[in-house]
Request: fold
Amino acid sequence: MKMIYDFIVKDYKGNDVPLSKYKGKTLLIVNTATKCGHTPQYEDLMTLYDKYEKDGLEILDFPCNQFLGQAPGTSEEIHDACILSWRIRFPQFSKIKVNGKDAEPLYKYLKENSPVLPGKRIQWNFTKFLVDSNGTIVNRYEPKVTPLEIEDDLRALLMQK
Reply:
């Protein structure tokens, strides 16, 4: 059976990144957009990253233009905008699709193997998946749940290490 660490994704420059690179880390995987009503969540994501990176948190940011074209531009343009506007330091990847026949295989896996809403399509930008340091998907949070609202769940996983 496939594990999260078996996937290879593209960074914002188009380079292959094996997710095995993140073995032993607690992951928060998020599909994002720079022109979305939830875009201010980037601030919360950076707050969590600043606070918990040293404890083993990695936030994996996957821009997605699938919802009303709210992630316009190239992956590199999106990356530059995120650094300028939110000073992100966490890994950002190439723009992907999260639903449909062309969905990123990682997202197909996340949706199918989530203990919350298994198999359900992604409804909007800023859906978040929390993955423990063993690669197990622990939870799925819908877009209206802010990153700071899941801090207790995140901290609990980081303390288990």
